[in-house]
Specification:
membrane; single chain; F-box-like_dom_sf; 19 helices; disordered C terminus; transmembrane
């Protein structure tokens, strides 16, 4: 479909002349700008600038995937100042090796770069320097920051106060009606009453606490609505709900607590009362020095080893602790209740008070590899300069052997080796899918060289917008979306659904809607994708239903049937041994033991199976067959042991010919054949 044209040819000719002059002026101004600024037209812009942007045509979907590729930074530092700043950023994340490399490169270019950097930081001008680096990483799901220096220390003023009290009073006296920026684009939120807006904010807060604070800076009205006690009460009931009690009982408990300690002020309670955060992970970065080996006596290398301690809390009272050398970017998304790796501790946590009335956290955990050992951690929630309640300080760490509980012999660990835990938020633990868009504008939108004739903009769900200027070529885009529903525990019948909306506008005289069409070109072989399109007046809705492909589903079910076949064969063998008195030897008894080791291999051969056990495929085949084969193996070994007697071994020895006799017999037969051959 074509874009609407003016009623008269004269207006069209005037528009073309103005457009040519605008293109020429942009080309002259573009030559004088920095080359780095030319990349900014592909950046994501905010929704409040969408009125000045135009929209473009999206035609094809060429590739879909639910993998999570590691996004590399688009900006590479080149100057000494930028290299030094990047090194400081890497050091704050605990990547000391990469930080040292950047420090070396910076000092090679400028030996005084550290002095210049500190002078620059004192002036408070680091925002411009790190703007491009933050632009490349602002969509990352996880960022590990290690507090350095004074950031370890809690702020001096620990009492909550109202720094914006006068400003809020000024807002309340003003007109808070939402006025549209453009008359022909009304603000639909202005039609909603405040009660509905507060309810929407409450549910948005339950999904993401960061979203709640972002809403407060949208406008004056939203800033005042976020102070509603209803929202803060909901936050407190969610954050301080004790595990194992009902929601109504928790509400009564929190209501009495806020009246006794905070005079009914829910926001003050949420700010001052210690709490645990469930929307991320607590990380303790530890280092130790290990001497290395060298062939030369005059050179002794030293290795600086970095390892991490992870703590993740769940609202049901479960806590998972994991110790590994893997970096946080790899571990945080796999840190769940079902993690089964070395140095993984699973337990529970409870809040306690000592004799002085101080509140502390007690964790009772158990290592999966040491079933007889119990580990007890005592931690205190503290704050840092970066925020409140984001630090866990060690108070005591002991272990007790369950076989010696009556003796109460505790093994006390040295806390000097234990670094505090710092909280790092994780935006999402859910699966994502990446769509690769290839654009094919219609003929009336581009010239003979494939360059756009108008300023255009593509928008995805009003959150991500990609503008293109006139004269640009529409390059492909990769956009990442979250799945709304789906759980890997349903493997191989797991299905994931995601929904987003896409629109396109062109700036001819005013914002003109461009009609859209889609075509699915390619997808992954191990997954099946079913897109569903819904056409609206100004945009197009696209729902993605992702499931396992028929090949993956069939192969997984085949593996389950293969496990049952192994169990059936071993069951027949066990029946013959137990009831038909079939003789069994040592190598026959090892069949069942071998099958016990073969089943985990068969399970891992299923494509895309979750690393942790507990999915539907395990219930269909793995769990039952492990139990059946184990019982059959025990029965066969029991018959073999029960039927053994020394007399059988002696009788067996008399009937079997000796090695010497067999060799003599073979020699005689061979000699006779030799004689007959010559005869």
């Amino acid at each position: 479909m074509s874009i609407p044209t003016p009623n008269s040819e004269q207006e069209l000719n005037e528009f073309r002349e103005r457009w040519k002059q605008e293109v020429v002026s942009k080309q002259h101004s573009g030559q004088q700008t920095n080359a780095a600024d030319t990349e900014d037209h592909h950046s994501i812009v905010d929704d409040n600038t969408s009125s000045s942007c135009d929209k473009a045509l999206v035609n094809d979907i060429s590739q879909l995937t639910i993998d999570e590729p590691e996004r590399q930074s688009q900006y590479q530092p080149t100057t000494a100042f930028e290299l030094y700043d990047k090194a400081v950023d890497l050091e704050s994340q605990g990547q000391l090796g990469k930080a040292l490399d950047h420090y070396r490169q910076a000092f090679r270019i400028d030996s005084d770069v550290d002095k210049n950097y500190h002078k620059y930081c004192k002036g408070g001008s680091t925002e411009k320097l790190t703007a491009k680096i933050d632009l490349a990483t602002k969509t990352d799901e996880f960022r590990h920051i290690i507090p350095i220096g004074s950031e370890y220390i809690q702020g001096k003023d620990s009492s909550s106060h109202e720094p914006f009290k006068a400003l809020l009073e000024d807002f309340s006296m003003q007109d808070l009606s939402l006025v549209p920026r453009l008359d022909y684009r009304p603000v639909f939120l202005a039609k909603l009453p405040n009660e509905i807006l507060v309810t929407v904010m409450k549910y948005a807060t339950l999904l993401s606490l960061a979203t709640f604070f972002e809403l407060a800076v949208v406008c004056k009205k939203f800033c005042l609505l976020t102070r509603s006690p209803t929202i803060w009460r909901c936050l407190c009931e969610q954050a301080y709900r004790p595990p194992g009690i009902s929601h109504s009982a928790s509400q009564r408990l929190q209501e009495s607590y806020v009246k006794e300690n905070y005079r009914g002020h829910w926001m003050k309670m949420f700010i001052e009362r210690p709490r645990l955060r469930f929307d991320g992970v607590y990380i303790s970065t530890c280092h130790y020095i290990r001497p290395g080996s060298s062939e030369n006596s005059w050179n002794q290398p030293v290795h600086l080893v970095t390892y991490y301690r992870y703590l993740r809390f769940f609202p049901d009272g479960t806590v998972v602790k994991h110790v590994t050398t893997a970096e946080p970017i790899v571990v945080v998304r796999r840190l769940s209740k079902y993690l089964r790796k070395r140095q993984t501790f699973v337990g529970t946590f409870r809040w306690r008070r000592n004799d002085d009335g101080d509140l502390f956290l007690q964790i009772n955990s158990q290592d999966l590899a040491l079933p007889n050992e119990r580990f007890f951690m005592t931690l205190v929630v503290k704050g840092t300069q970066r925020g409140r309640h984001n630090k866990l300080v060690w108070k005591k760490y002991t272990s007790v052997n369950e076989n010696q509980i009556a003796e109460r012999q505790e093994a006390l660990y040295d806390l000097k080796l234990m670094k505090p835990y710092f909280f790092s938020p994780v935006r999402s633990y859910h699966k994502k899918y990446l769509i690769h868009f290839v654009f094919e504008p219609s003929a009336n939108m581009v010239n003979a060289h494939g360059q756009l004739l108008y300023n255009t903009t593509i928008g995805f769900s009003s959150l991500k917008k990609f503008p293109y200027s006139a004269g640009d070529t529409m390059m492909p885009l990769q956009v990442e979306f979250n799945y709304d529903n789906g759980d890997p525990i349903d493997y191989p019948f797991d299905r994931y659904t995601g929904y987003f909306e896409i629109d396109a506008f062109a700036n001819v005289w005013t914002n003109v809607i461009i009609p859209l069409s889609f075509r699915l070109e390619a997808s992954m072989t191990s997954f099946s994708f079913t897109p569903t399109f819904t056409a609206f007046e100004q945009h197009l809705g696209l729902q993605i239903l992702t499931g396992r492909s028929n090949t993956t589903l069939g192969f997984s079910l085949f593996m389950c049937l293969l496990m049952w076949a192994l169990s059936l064969v071993l069951a027949v063998f066990g029946y013959q041994v137990m009831f038909r008195h079939r003789p069994v030897h040592a190598h026959g008894c090892m069949i069942g033991v071998t099958m016990l080791f073969a089943l985990p291999t068969l399970r891992s051969a299923q494509p895309g199976v979750p690393e942790n056990t507990g999915c539907i495929a395990d219930v269909l085949g793995y769990y039952w067959n492990m139990a059946i084969i184990a019982l059959e193996t025990i029965a066969i070994l029991g018959c073999w042991v029960a039927r053994w007697s020394p007399n059988n071994e002696k009788a067996k020895g008399t009937h079997e010919p000796s090695k010497t006799d067999s060799q003599t017999t073979l020699h005689k037969f061979g000699h006779l054949e030799h004689i007959e051959h010559f005869a």
